């Protein structure tokens, strides 16, 4: 079976581009597994870990702080707000991400924007011990 072409891009850099066996990503509605031949889909991402499984079985984990993912006939493209290989996520990096989310919450207007900002902050705090 042919592999899945996958690209992971953040505003800072291209983190991954190549053929993979599968990608598991943190969709806003839950974890999603994307494999070759997956139906087209467009989804938003919540803070979490993207697991990239290469054709040989080796896995690579990348922390993302939201974004979008699109599956189309050419493959999977993930556009992340922030993307950092899990090996590079230190306590200082997570503290910075949480502080940024707290600032976003403080600046959010009451209502839906405030609810979303609180959700992102809670997701980051829940992820902190796992990373």
Structural class by helix and strand composition: alpha+beta
The succession of helices and strands, N to C, reads: EEEEEEEEEHH
Tally of DSSP helical segments:
2
Percent range for β-strand residues: 35-45%
Strand tally is: 9
Q: Alpha-carbon distance between the termini?
A: 33 Å
Low-confidence stretches: none
The shape is globular
**Largest sheet at a glance?**
9 strands, mixed
Rg of Cα set: 15 Å
Give short descriptive properties of this protein.
131 residues; 9-stranded mixed beta sheet
Structural overview:
Helices cover about 25% and strands about 45% of the residues. By secondary structure, the protein is of the alpha+beta class. Strands 1, 2, 3, 4, 5, 6, 7, 8 and 9 form a 9-stranded mixed beta sheet that branches. The protein is globular, with a radius of gyration of 15 Å. The chain starts with a strand and ends with a helix. The mean pLDDT is about 90.
